[in-house]
Amino acid sequence: MTEIFGINHRRMKKLNRKPPWLKKRIPAPSGMRRMREILHRQNLHTVCESARCPNIGECFAKPTATFMILGDLCTRACRFCGVEHGSPGALDPNEPRRVAETARGLGLKHVIITSVTRDDLPDGGAEQFACTIRQIRRFLTRATVEVLTPDFMGSMDALGTVLNEKPDIFNHNLETVKRLYPAVRPQAQYDRSLKILAQAKRLFPGIKIKSGAMVGLGESPSEIFELMKDLRSVGCDILTIGQYLQPTRVNLPVSEYIHPELFEEYARKGYELGFEYVFSAPFARSSFNAEDYFNRDL
Hints:
The protein has helices at about 30-40, 45-50, 55-60, 95-105, 125-140, 155-165, 180-185, 190-205, 220-235, 260-275, 290-295, and strands at about 1-5, 5-10, 10-15, 45, 65-70, 110-115, 145-150, 170, 210-215, 240-245, 255, 275-280. By secondary structure, the chain is an alpha/beta fold. The chain has an eight-stranded mixed beta sheet with strand order 4-5-6-7-8-9-10-12. Helix 5 (about 125-140) runs parallel beside helix 6 (about 155-165) and helix 9 runs parallel beside helix 10 (about 260-275).
């Protein structure tokens, strides 16, 4: 037992096998096949597949998905991420329309758009985000729209291009605590990401600001608490905290499996700090059950 925030919590060091709370039932394969056929037919990518998300079976069975625009090759090589990196190709001008048509065909009420990081583009792909939002508004007039963007190398002009389309939720993940950035996100900057979130809230106070972090990379609970306070200081409204799981052998290993009790404590602390909504659980991910924010009891 380890005492954290004045409360004893059980914590588990990395084992050869995952602990019981990280075991999931495998959904029926028919839903997976159907979604994959739809997405591949439209030549669309999802972060669900590209990042090897553990929740893919549940999401595809609903069905729902997080659309990943700007291709499937990232210009960065974050050591936690399962998305392939390399030299991306040219932008597809028809991609925004295909995303919107597919979302309409699936009957989605909440559409999430994310992307690889495109440091090779002058605007980081911001205009493609904007075009995709416009197409979704055209095809799904009642759907809510959430964007999960890269940091655009800190460009406030690129950020403005996306925010001018007024997504319902603007999400940019810190991913980990400041101390671990050189090891986990060597091409990113903790303070730059905070500035992106702060500017988004300043320019468009009505847009809900969201961010997320992984645990189990070697951070301490006090560092997560500091991250939470940093996010609240820039006006972040929604927070997700989930267990890091190594997507491939070349990615960082799991340092520790965090017990569900500590996730509950993070959620309690988050609400104390003033977050409107906190999703803190082993399988929590930025886009997993994201629509629950709109369905919550107020």
